[in-house]
Structure formats: C-alpha cells, structure tokens
Amino acid sequence: MPGKPVTDQQVRVYMTDRLHYSQRAAAARAGFSERTARRLESEPCLPSQRKPGRGRTVPDPLEAVWDTVLVPILERDPAVQAVTLLRHLQMTVPDAFPDDRVRRTLERRVRDWRALHGPERDVIFRQAPEPGRMALSDFTDATELGVTIAGQPLAHRLFHFVLAYSGWEHAAVVLGGESFTALAENLQNALWTLGGVPHEHRTDSLSAAYRNLDADAAADVTARYEAFCAHYGMIASRNNAGEAHENGAVEAHNNHLKTALDQGLILRGCRDFADLAEWRRFVDELVARRNRRREEALRIEMATLRPLPARRTTDFTEVVARVTRTGGFLVHTVFYSAPSQLVGKRLRVHVYDDRIEAFLGATRVVTHPRHRARRDGTRVHCVNYRHVIHALRRKPQALAGSVYRDGLFPRSEYAAAWTALSDALPRKDACRRMVDLLWLAHDEGCEAELAALIANSLAHGDLPEARTLKPCLRPRQRMLPEDTPVVLTDLTSFDALLEGHA
What we know:
The chain is α/β, with parallel strands linked by helices. The protein has helices at 8-17, 23-30, 34-42, 66-76, 82-92, 103-117, 180-194, 223-232, 248-268, 276-292, 295-302, 385-394, 398-401, 405-408, 412-424, 427-444, 447-459, 466-469, 493-501; strands at residues 134-141, 148-149, 152-153, 157-163, 169-174, 200-203, 235-238, 272-273, 317-322, 328-331, 334-337, 346-351, 355-360, 363-369, 380-382.
C-alpha cells in the first residue's frame, strides 16, 4: 500500500511464493506492488537490514545563527520563548528572516535543545499514606454550583477536610473568606464528628494560619493557629508555595465533591433552597453517603488516631463593643441591634463565620446572623425589630427616616405593607399603622401568621391595619400538661395538728 513500509515478513512471503508464482502474482500475495518486487529482487536483503540515514532535503535556515547567536541566549536563560528568539533575529538580521516561515522550525529546535541541555525539572514523588498520619484541609469556591437561597444567588465557599489514608471527608458551607474563624470552627467540627485527631494537619499557605513571611522566617505560624494545633496535639504543616500537588489528597477531592454536589442538584431538579440550613443539610447528607464507601478503611485509621481533648478550644474572634444610644453596636463596621436595656454597656462579642454572639459578663444577651461590610463603604445594618419596637412604639414617626428602616421588617410581606401604606397614606398615618403591625407581631408572637394575613389584605387591594387583623389571629392556647400528677393531702392529717395545739 502507498506510504506503508514493507516488512521483513512480507519479503519472506514474497520470496517463498516467487518459487512457484510469477513476479506479479507473488507481489500481490505479499501485499505490495510489482515495482517494489523488482526493487527487492535487485537488493535481496531484508528491510530491517538496510536502514539508510535520512538526510536533510533542504538547507538548514538556522545554520548560520543557531550555535553563534541563539544557543548563548538559551544558555543564559532557558525560559526564553522561540518567538522571542525569532523577533530578535528579525531585528538583528532582517534580510535573512524577513517573515515567520522559520517559526515552527525554531520552536522544534528550541524544544529539542531544552530536552537535551535544559535545566533539571521537578519530579513528583508519589506518597504511600499511613493510617492516622495526615489530614488535609482546604477552602474551595462553590459559587459555580449555582445554588440560590430563596431565589438569591449564594456566593460561598466549602471548607473541605480529608483524611489522607481512608479518604473520609467533612464539608461545611462557609459564607465569608478563608478566615481563622472559619478554619477553627469547621476544623473542630470535623475532628469531633470524626471522633479522633490525626498526627499532622496540612493546609496551603492560608493567611488565617500563616503570616506568609519570607522562607527564612523562624515563626511564621500565627499564634492562634499554633495554640489551636497544640490544644489538639497536631503538627501544623503546609505545602510549598506554588506546589498544589503537595496538597493533592484534598485538591482532587475538592473536584470530586463539587462534581458529586452538581450531580445531586441535577437529580434534585432544582438549585434553589428555602434557607441556608436546607442547603447545609443537603451537603451533609451527600457527604455522609460518600463516607459510607470508606467505612472499612476508616476502621483501620480510627485505631491509630489520637483521642480528642476533654473540650473544644476557641473557634471565634472576640471583639469588645459598646452599645450606643442608637440601639446597637458595631462589629467590623457592621451595625447590630441590641435590647435597649443594654445601652451604654460593654459587650464581649464572639464573631463566628455565620453568626455573632454578644455576652454581658457570662450571659449571652444578643445573637445575630453575621453580615459582611460592603466594598462601596455603605453601612450594613442587621436589626431585630423586637429590640427596638418598644421605643419605636413611643416614637412611631422615627420609622420613616430611620437609616435601618428596611432592616426592621422581618419578612418581605411587612416590607410590601410599608410600601403600600407609604404610597397611600400621609407619612404620619403610614408610620403609625406600620409600627402597630410590628407591635402586634411582637406582642402576640404571630410573625408568620400575621405576614400571611398582610399578604392576603394586599392581594385584595386593602391596606393592612393591626386592629382589623388582630381578630383574625388564632388565639394562643394556654393549656396545662395533661400528665401533671396532682397529690391531694389527707384531711385527717390536720386532726393531729389540732390535738397537738390542745
């Protein structure tokens, strides 16, 4: 066949058949042309025995400049690209290289030179993991999954913890960045869920754990992370900068986990969740199913893990804040409301990844979901209307111009009610009606039920009013438990008291 070289076996078949057939027939039986047969008969040796060296058919266009001009440049810095060398030749020898026709030849020549004379390349040494030796943690961006909460896109990360030997994993939704709070809280959750502590914990160069100073820095681990690892008896380590494969046991699992979550969302048929807790529950259930396949290897690893300490350690950042006359306090430039009784008090605020908890002494007095400051400098407010409703009821006109007015409304139905009231009524009446609705929701403990009544009133074109909606609320049931034992005193016991008095 044209373009296909003749093999030794074909020549042997041809020579054998040539004893009994014509040259044309023997060549056809061997699978090549009659012209090839004539050439083989003129040179009776086998093809493997004659290997003529292939010579250059055209002159080498780089012969005059390769050894004298280009090789010294490559030896000085092997990272130089072939196209850079070509542009250099076009500037220094423009008549010899007027265009880019030698570019491919130069690229092949540079590639071969690097393979023969280039610098040493790094080699990856595959490791055999030991049970209980190493656990790895990493943060991975999960925005690509397209998850929404109540219709709003959720920008978040996943904290991912993996045991190198068994592959057992733990994942958690992280709303903020790669902070020490997120690392400490979720790493502790992983360890206590696992029920043991590995010998070494490895991360990449997280700023939450390392100062990321120069390579010769003696104390690069942050004090908080060092104390955290000491509490659990773990050795803190990290991969070399730019060497992601050294953290490969968790990097590969990141992709596998996000692929599994994506497939799970496809089977679910919807990527929208009612609230954040539902999405977190979805992640936990999927990770639990994946861990069932690793139970046998995990049993081997559990025998080598260290026991947990007697208690957890600090997994939050503490901030001291004073409650101001505006009814709240600032944490990381975000305003959080507080009960009015705390005005002027100093609170210790524990800042977690997803919440804050404020303490007066040892008593927890305020809890809020954590908010993040906006990049444009606009103040963010997190307000619980129950904290200010008593003061607002005395001064309802303050609602209209309040800087955190929109944050006062606990549900979207209340915000829609304010829009309808402010459009249809004078400012004074709109504020009074809106404050009455908020007071009714607080006083009767019927926030959700009242929201449904407000939505129904707006749907019928009516303006909601507290005094007309209150009779529609279901009365609160106040019933004693049926199984409360009641012991009646025997009346004859009183006779003994009378006799003793006598």
